[in-house]
Amino acid sequence: MHGLRRRRRGLLVLTSLTTAVLAVSTVSTAAAKPPPADPLQRQVEAIHDTGVVGVHAEVTSRDARDSAYAGTAAMNTRRPMPRDGRFRIGSATKTFTATVVLQLIGEGRMSLEDTVEQWLPGVVRGNDNDGSQITVRQLLQHTSGIPDVGQEISALKSADGYRAERFRTYTPEELVGLAMRHPAKFSPGAGWSYSNTNYILAAMIIHKVTGRSWAREVKDRIIRPLGLRDTSTPGPFPFILGRHAQGYATFGTGTGTGIDVTVLNSSMAVGSGSVISTAHDLNRFYAALLGGRLLAPAQLDEMTTTKLAPELGVRYGLGLAEIPLPCGGSYFGHRGELLGYVTWGGATRDGTRTAVVYVTSEGGQDTQQAMITLVGQELCRTRS
Q: Which of 99, 42, 48, 94 is closest to 70 using CA atoms?
């Protein structure tokens, strides 16, 4: 296997996750090649063995940082996975957006009980979608009933659609309008359904409250204060700058590792999935968030107060999922996926230990299970 590297130095396609969260991966001791001694490297190689092109995981605690790599940066090459490579974090972006909204609430500039209509008059209407009945809390917790706009984005649905529209720019208003073509899933507060449209609307509300773009607020409130040098909100810019591996997608065909989809105008995911980051920067973000550096206690309590999310098989708060740990208790994190990159990560409740892993192709249920197992086991592990 080419491109295996390791470093140590001091210091959401949404499916039910219940089985994967509780499963415990095992490593065969009968293999001809002895398994790596380091448990993180062993788990990264197990993820790679599920059929993905490349894998990178990083685990941090107060005084240590461990990284492991497997696979290659591109198919049919011997080029190793880049150290601290950048990638599209997909729906892990939602935690950034929810953090900004909760900061504004802590500043008294808006409320979780404000309605969408109050901030965005006339935007959510039609097909039983009614912004006057939907609160900001319901947007962030996916209990609004608003349909997901993803079904309208050709670049995300097929290889032909991707080739034709990978450079297309969407406005948030256009995206919400596309979602309004579909009927509401349920009355506000009467159910739970994951919808990227919720977070597009949240980004629009941030703009309305502050007079500045969602991207600018994320940069000034999170990226810059935490020194996340490899994290960005690219807007319509379709390229990933700096060190990165290629991303691949099969568009649900399950055939091979798919086509190269690294180049993508991610404006269809403003507020919901467009952030570019690294495993290291995501770990720093989770540590700061759960450690109380970004939100006041009242707002962090709101974010981490969860309810059952049946589609995911876990519990969900405001932009954060609560996932059981194999050693007991739970942690907070978020899955992310946007064409060619899939990530899973999170932190212990006090933010003292974090873990992030990403892969550069979709994989399948085995991949997802192995990623969740890695995060759970690493957050349970006590390191010297």
A: 48
Q: How far apart are CA 175 and CA 196, in angstroms?
A: 10
The two tokens of residue 104 are: 């504004």
> Pairing between strand 87-88 and 64-71?
unpaired
At 361, the pLDDT band (50, 70, 90 cuts) reads very high
SS3 (DSSP) at 8: strand
Q: Is 361 annotated as catalytic? A: no
pLDDT of residue 33: 58
Where does the chain show beta strands of DSSP type E?
Answer: 6-10, 54-61, 64-71, 87-88, 125-126, 129-130, 248-249, 259-260, 276-277, 307-309, 314-316, 321-324, 330-337, 342-347, 354-359
- 29 has pLDDT over 90: no
> Pick the catalytic residue: 67, 91, 232, 361?
91
Percent of the chain with pLDDT strictly greater than 70: 89
Pair 109, 190: CB distance under 8 Å: no
| Cα 117 to Cα 122, 129, 135, distances in angstroms | 6, 11, 9
How far apart CA 200 and CA 346 sit, in angstroms, is 22
Region 279-297 average pLDDT? 98
Res. 23: pLDDT tops 70: no
Q: What digits encode the pLDDT tens for the residues 58-72?
A: 999 988 999 999 999
d(CA 138, CA 148): 14
